[in-house]
Write a structure and sequence with these properties.
Strand 2 and strand 3 form a beta hairpin. Helices cover 10% and strands 34% of the residues. By secondary structure, it is mainly beta. The strands form three sheets. The chain has a four-stranded antiparallel sheet with strand order 3-2-5-8, with no helix packed on it. A three-stranded mixed sheet has the order 4-1-9, with no helix packed on it. Strands 6-7 form a two-stranded antiparallel sheet. The chain is built from one helix and nine strands. It is globular, with a radius of gyration of 18 Å.
Length: 127
């Protein structure tokens, strides 16, 4: 077999569903006291890409880009976490310090790789 045929086969495999380069990412969000954040959303983003997920009642999350649970490509990401509810007077009550929900103020980052795909984050309540 020629070297070009081998490269062509590898390229086809890389472009197929099993080799899209995405890494499934999951983890858990907790408060400083160890209790889980029981609702909200989490996003991993760069200037050109974003994957997000819903935070479950136990604090767990799984990221989705285009199909459920597919994850995201390897790289360095800014992580944002937001959670709020509305009170009986229709006022927004933040469950997490709003700094975590803004890409310009969130202190959270993640380096996603084949070896690093489980992330646990700790957030604080609003002051």
């Amino acid at each position: 077999m020629s070297k070009h045929y081998f490269i062509f086969v590898l390229l086809c495999l890389a472009l197929s569903g099993c080799g899209n380069g995405f890494i499934p990412v999951h983890g858990k969000v907790t408060f400083e006291d160890g209790s889980p954040l029981t609702q909200g959303g989490i996003a991993f983003s760069t200037a050109t890409f974003m994957a997000d997920g819903k935070i479950q009642a136990d604090g767990s999350f799984t990221l989705t880009s285009s199909k459920p649970g597919d994850g995201l490509p390897p790289g360095n990401y800014t992580v944002t976490i937001s959670a709020s509810k509305t009170d009986d007077k229709e006022r927004t009550i933040y469950l997490v310090d709003p700094k975590f929900g803004d890409v310009t103020t969130s202190p959270l980052t993640a380096e996603v790789s084949g070896n690093q795909k489980i992330f646990d984050f700790q957030v604080s309540k609003p002051k």
